[in-house]
Amino acid sequence: MRTLRISLTVAIAAFWLVMNGMLLRREMEYRSLDLYRQGVVDFLGQDLRRERWLGIYHEHRKIGYTGLVLTKSFEDEGILHEVEIDSLFMIDLSQFTIDLFGKIDLFGTGKRVRVRARGTVLLDHAMAPREAEIELTFDNSSIRLSGEHREDAFVVVFKTNGQRLLELPLPIEQFWPTDGFFPTLPVSGYEIGQSYEVPMFDPISGTRSMARVEVIESGTRMLNGLNVDCLVVKTRFRGVTYTSWVTPDGEVIRQEIPEPYNFVMKRETRREAVRGIPGVLINLPPERPADEESDSDER
Amino acid sequence: MRPFYALVRCRVSLLRNVIVDFRRDSVAKVAVIACGLVLVVAIGYLVALHSFRFIEAIPPIGVQLNSRLLGLLFLVLFTMVALSNAIVSYTSLFIAGETRFFFENPLPPVLIFATKVLESIVFSGWATLVLCYPILAAFGVVRNAPASYYVESAAILLLFILFCGVAGAGVSTILLSLVRRWTPRRITVVASGLTLLIGWGFLRSFDFGSLNGEENILALSRFTMSLSALQSSFFPSTWATSGILAAVTGEHREVLFNAGLLIANTAIFAPLLSWYADSIYSRRWMVTSEGAAGTGRADGRRVERRASFEDPDPIGSLVRKDLLTFARDPAQLSQFVLFLLLTVVYVLSLVQIPSTLFSAKWRIILYFSNIAAISLILSSFTSRFLFPLISLEGKAFWIVGLAPVPRALLVDQKVRFGRLLIVGLGGVAGVCSCLCLGYHFEQTISAVFTITLAAWILTALAVGFGAAFPNMNEDNPARIAVGFGGTLNFFASAIAVIILIAIQTTPYFVSGIDPSPTARLAAHAGALAFAAAVSATALRTGRRSLSSMEF
């Protein structure tokens, strides 16, 4: 009886140590991350999946959407983050220069092009890439981007019609895949005065650029009749500085890209985001000015 | 192992007797209990479903707010279940008559301790399980959870309640060791200080005063975000919340991890409590039970002196006896303070009612909803504290029976005692809530009148049912309150409140939002007649039952 009691006590204590040790390891892994990566973990919070959708507007006309789905999964090798990106926008290439891979001009200029980037990137707990699979579509042409670990690099391969276009070795380090547009980091818990520098990988141009994020001030914004706490975040990415209004939860309410682009991105649900873009989905209303209700955000 | 089997046989026999009694019970009794339980569960589920759906649809904070509200639910559950179990386990471990019986038998202290702690957990946790599972089910429906969620969430909830229960028992034993040499004044000062500190922190979290009514959801969002305990990975409510959120997305590995954390941190109490039971429990039980008896004798002398020389009124003496018995029982006193705090929180929360609802129609709806809410809070007071009063006379009933007064006088005494308390409490809550909501003088007086009538009825029902369905063998008031008579009293009270409110709202249904003063006066007269009839019937039934009761 006494032996049984001692054995049980030892077993219970061992189980307690193992479970709490695992919990402690998770917490230490989290605390070892820098501010930005902690923010990404906080963006999910206790949820394991979170979506963020923004409608893209130009001069009050909807020209596209950009969506991000972040999923946390628990594998044998640890905690992984799967980033699903889905962006679609119509863009007049006469106004913007897309330096695709730095040398290929697929479209020429003066043409309105429908650009879509859709796929997933798998990141490890430290936000370093493990795998990537993204489909890029420019009108009727498509390019497949795939990335994998190879020796000491993360190699990104671009293919079209089964033919290899380009192979791009990137250093194994944290990066965040952009939506091909003007990205905002999925970070929760911004505080005034904080600033981050995050390497971002743009699948459309195939380039890696640094984004500098700075939290300027806090305030509230009226959204759908509800006053919402938010922080004003300035992001400088590829020579453009744009402003985002982000809730403490990391939800982007609005994003304004200044002259000469004049884009406005507004927080929408997935269903609202994919609505109203010409030639995107069947049985959806044609391109129209943004309705008054969704445009009712006031500073 | 023999004592263990004897105890198991004893519990099995008790269970068998309960089942046999249940079979012998009338169909009506079983139907009332079953229907009441189903109704409570169904209402809980529907309210939670609509609330989660409403919040989920609020862009852009709804989804995250729902997740955090789930965390807040577990945080509140942790506090409530642990506190409740600390009180119940203290009563069971140190005060209950059965514990004395077990010690006298003698059973090993470890076995007594384990049995009492387990019983306390079951007793203080079953209602949480039954009432909270529908909320979790509603959350699963809103989030389109897979079928496995409903099993996993039940398991997580069960483990969480088990953890809270064991933690409560642990706290109870530690606290007893710490405060056993403290004077009542010191305990009161420390408890008051702690209550004020927690209350101040709670109100500060809501940022009262800085928000207007329209920003209620914002206040809730800020509140849930500012609770650091909600976000700490080391807090048990975080494990339960993470487990539930993982179950919603079908991430079984994470569910298992969080369940494992709960199991490990529950199981670690086993060797600790076992050591306490082995080495300290029996000594502490003796000191506690002897101490309680000593205090009782001293107080008893004081009561006797007052009863004999100062106050010839038997009702006054009996009221003082009830007050002393109540004050001596820490379980009763602490739960009463908890109820009082909940009432205060309710009244304070009315400050934040959105002014956008203040159209004439909504003001009327809000007015009667507030009266109904206060009446229902009073009903929980009467069900929990007044209904058990007759039963608590227990085996010592013969002492009261020997007093040279009719036995039915006991019913009148309990009613007077109850009314003094409940009418006062209801009146204060009514006036404060009307002031918070900005109603004018006449409406406030009218509300206080309705609440007073409700208090009048509820007190009569609780004492009447308490006398008609006494349980003299039980010394735990919480158990008496959830017995058949208690359940019947609870439903009768709820129905009486609904009828009372229906009578008072009739003029508004007939004439719209501005009925004539005559119509309102007629409604008040109707409500008064209803209150008088119900009170008289309940008290007559109680008096008759108590007078004809055999011992």
Describe the structure.
- The complex is a heterodimer of chains A (299) and B (551).
- With 299 residues, chain A is an alpha+beta fold.
- Chain A is 15% helix and 49% strand.
- Chain A has helices at residues 2-32, 35-44, 270-273, and strands spanning 49-58, 61-75, 78-92, 112-123, 129-138, 141-150, 153-160, 163-171, 176-177, 195-202, 207-223, 226-237, 240-246, 252-257, 263-268.
- Chain A has a 15-stranded mixed β-sheet with strand order 8-7-6-5-4-3-2-1-15-14-13-12-11-10-9.
- Mean pLDDT of chain A is 78; it is low at 97-109 and 279-299.
- The relative contact order of chain B is 0.08.
- The two termini of chain B are 37 Å apart.
- With 551 residues, chain B is an all-alpha fold.
- Chain B is built from 21 helices and no strands.
- Residues 294-301 of chain B have low confidence and may be disordered.
- Chain B has helices at residues 2-24, 27-56, 62-95, 97-104, 109-142, 147-179, 184-206, 216-226, 228-231, 236-248, 252-267, 269-310, 314-328, 330-349, 360-386, 397-402, 409-437, 441-468, 477-481, 484-511, 517-548.
- Chain A binds chain B through residues 5, 8-9, 12-13, 15-16, 18-20, 22-23, 26-27, 30, 45-50, 73-74, 220, 223-224, 226-229, 247-249, 251, 253, 267, 269, and chain B through 58-61, 63-64, 67-68, 71, 214-215, 217-218, 221-222, 225, 231, 233-234, 238, 241-242, 245-246, 249, 251, 253-254, 257, 260-261, 263-265, 267-268, 270-271, 274.
Count the helices of chain B. How many? 21
Main-sheet strand order of chain A equals 8-7-6-5-4-3-2-1-15-14-13-12-11-10-9
The overall pLDDT of chain B, averaged over residues, is 81
Biggest beta-sheet profile of chain A? 15 strands, mixed
Give the proportion of residues in helices of chain A. Answer: 10-25%
Largest sheet of chain B: none
Radius of gyration of chain A: 22 Å
**Termini separation of chain B (Å)?**
37 Å
* Weakly predicted, low-confidence segments of chain A: 97-109, 279-299
- By secondary-structure content and strand pairing, the structural class of chain A works out as alpha+beta
SSE ordering of chain A: HHEEEEEEEEEEEEEEEH
Give me the secondary-structure category of chain B.
mainly alpha
The sequence of SSEs of chain B as H and E is HHHHHHHHHHHHHHHHHHHHH
